[in-house]
Write a structure and sequence with these properties.
The chain has 600 residues and is α/β, with parallel strands linked by helices. The protein contains 20 helices and 15 strands. The protein has a 4-stranded antiparallel sheet with strand order 1-2-4-3. Strands 6-5-10-11 form a 4-stranded parallel sheet, sandwiched between helices. The two termini are 35 Å apart. The structure holds arginine. Arginine (ARG) is lined by residues 119, 122, 124, 159, 161, 328, 346, 348.
């Protein structure tokens, strides 16, 4: 469906043309003075210069051409030459009716959908998720959902850190503790056990222990490097043990991401590209891109227009080992080969801005991607505590994600349990749903690149620009709709059977008051907001929209006695409007990665 602003702009353009002016002057925008008008057009001001006339004259002539418009109910030329506009109730209603008939509320689908890979999450196996993993998960998930809703073919890839020294460290520590395990018997030829020799909690203790030891003990570190080398070169027992680390860890990661309503289509990791690295490096050398510098293999990526120093991209270290860069580049190559994406979006901390700039340049220069392949890095800011410093536990440690979520669930439960009509089980379940909205909305409502303060009190509040406020609004609408069904069904019952579904027989009607019209106008923005959120890769656009929409609804609700309205047609029109509002709000929160309870 054409966007509402485009539709009314084209009506305005026709009027400019009919009055003898350049139609391009007829661009209409939402009014920044909603007390005066709904929309405005400032084209007469620009036109006046072009045509050497007083702006008000141009405005008056254009207004004259719109006297019989079925789109504008009011076109007022005001000094010095603005056009203040209102749209007709009927035109607005028809637009909304078309929106409700469309399964994506009028969002235009792309002619040729793009293949998009969203690379987000990026946890390292064998390490518990901590608060630092919250933002990539939340933002990436929402970006994935927005791209998909916008009609594209999208894959989310977790890009696990599952290779390299951290694996060697774990293997070394396991070997030290249980040297007799079959994995370390190099002459062993049989099948390896299917059961892992450790649990997730043991693994989570093993890794930090090993990591700490390697920092103090050079010999231990050397053993870990040797284990890494053996693993990467395919020593059977090491590979088998590594598979166990991976499985145990991934099972736990899945559980944690599930709690966050975050899921991935691809559970690929750095290890998946190990085997294609040598060929990639060879190609880069043969192409004349990669060369030796101080023993390392590098690709220059600086450009003439750079205003800051962009260091070369290191492909292999001087000892021949692959690094973070190498696996990311090989992953790009692998993705192009397997999925041929048109676009890859990476969601990581913004401190990796320079890193991705290097990677993207290197990938382009060496021909890993096509010239038209879009490579986008969404670098997010830091999540801070109330003291303005990176979020920590009370004793200054790194907080586990589970702990953080437990805390906020509890806070939410405290608030929700005050509602005495719910039993404890429902209160618990509802708290979790609402708490997730608090965390996700609190994060996503900020522009991703900005730092923000994780403020449990503010985020869990039912008032203000928060997730719970949005959910509260949805629940309020649902409750009115349920009551309406009860009322109407009671009237409709014949022989104990409900004749028809009350909510199916309603249609949106012309707005009868200002708050209703304001709500309707807010609804029309849906397709342009989603389009912008997709194009700018910006979930905060969706948050800003639903906050305005929720406010517009609540204003209408306070001004209007919906259920006690005697005029049935009027009432059913409102019900249709409520249903559309609910559907749009629920669609939007789904794009943000959370959902609403039935009551709260
Ligand atoms: N595992 C990495 C880390 O812990 C993050 C991975 C981000 N994604 C990527 N494609 N580099 O820092």
């Amino acid at each position: 469906m054409e966007k509402f602003l485009d539709l009314i702009s084209s009506e305005m353009k026709k009027a400019f043309e009919a009055a003898g002016y350049n139609p391009e002057l007829g661009k209409v925008t939402f009014s920044n003075r909603p007390d005066l008008c709904e929309f405005q057009c400032n084209g007469a001001m620009a036109g006046a210069k072009q045509y050497h006339k007083a702006p008000i004259m141009v405005a008056n002539e254009v207004a004259g051409k719109l006297e019989n418009s079925t789109i504008f109910s009011e076109v007022t030329a005001v000094a010095p030459g603005f056009l203040n506009l209102k749209v007709t109730e009927t035109f607005l209603k028809e637009y909304l009716q078309k929106m409700s008939d469309d399964d994506k509320f009028g969002l235009q689908m792309p002619e040729s959908p793009k293949k998009i890979i969203v690379d987000y999450g990026g946890p390292n196996v064998a390490k518990p998720l901590h608060v630092g993993h919250l933002r990539p998960a939340i933002i990436g998930e929402s970006i994935k959902r927005i791209c998909r809703y916008a009609g594209h073919d999208v894959l989310g890839d977790i890009h696990l850190g599952d290779w390299g020294l951290q694996m060697g460290l774990i293997i070394t520590e396991v070997k030290l503790r249980e040297p007799d395990l079959v994995y370390f018997d190099e002459s062993y030829q049989g099948e390896y056990p299917t059961e892992a020799p450790f649990t997730i909690s043991e693994l989570e203790e093993i890794y930090p222990t090993a990591s700490a030891k390697s920092k103090e003990d050079a010999d231990y570190k050397a053993q870990a490097m040797d284990a890494t080398f053996k693993l990467q070169n395919g020593v059977r027992g090491y590979r088998a043990l590594w598979k166990h680390i991976l499985n145990v860890s991934v099972t736990d990661l899945k559980k944690n991401y599930d709690n966050l309503k975050v899921d991935f289509d691809l559970w690929k990791g750095e290890s998946d590209v190990h085997d294609i690295i040598p060929a990639m490096v060879e190609d880069m050398k043969n192409g004349g891109y990669a060369y030796e510098s101080d023993g390392a293999i590098v690709v220059d990526v600086k450009e003439e227009t750079d205003t800051k120093e962009i260091p070369p991209c290191i492909i292999l270290k001087s000892d021949g080992a692959a690094l973070y860069n190498t696996t990311d580049l090989a992953t790009i190559m692998d993705r192009m080969d397997k999925y041929a994406p048109d676009k890859m979006i990476y969601v990581t901390d913004k401190r990796q801005d320079l890193y991705f700039e290097q990677i993207f340049r290197c990938a382009r220069k060496t021909g890993l991607v096509k010239p038209e392949t879009e490579l986008i890095h969404i670098g997010f800011g830091t999540m801070n505590g109330k003291d303005g410093k990176p979020f920590k536990t009370r004793d200054g440690g790194v907080m586990r994600l589970e702990m953080l979520l437990n805390d906020i669930n509890e806070e939410m439960y405290r608030k929700i349990a005050e509602n005495k009509t719910m039993n404890d089980k429902e209160a618990k379940e509802t708290s979790e749903v609402v708490a997730l909205s608090a965390v996700k909305y609190g994060d996503l409502s900020n522009q991703a690149s900005k730092d923000y303060i994780f403020d449990v009190e503010r985020f869990t509040s039912f008032e203000g620009d928060t997730g719970p406020y949005i959910l509260y609004t949805i629940v309020r609408i649902k409750s009115i709709l349920n009551k309406y069904s009860e009322q109407t069904n009671a009237q409709n019952i014949t022989d104990g059977e409900i004749k028809s579904d009350a909510q199916k027989n309603v249609a949106i009607r012309d707005a009868v008051n200002e708050s209703e019209k304001a709500l309707m106008l807010e609804i029309t923005k849906f397709n342009s907001v989603i389009e912008a959120a997709y194009e700018e890769v910006a979930p905060h656009r969706v948050c800003a929209y639903i906050y305005d929409l929720a406010n517009a609804f609540n204003h209408f609700y306070h001004e209007t006695k919906i259920l006690s309205e005697q005029d049935e047609t009027k009432k059913s029109g409102w019900i249709a409007l409520l249903m559309l509002t609910r559907d749009i709000l629920e669609t939007c929160i789904d794009l943000l990665g959370f959902s609403a309870p039935e009551r709260m």
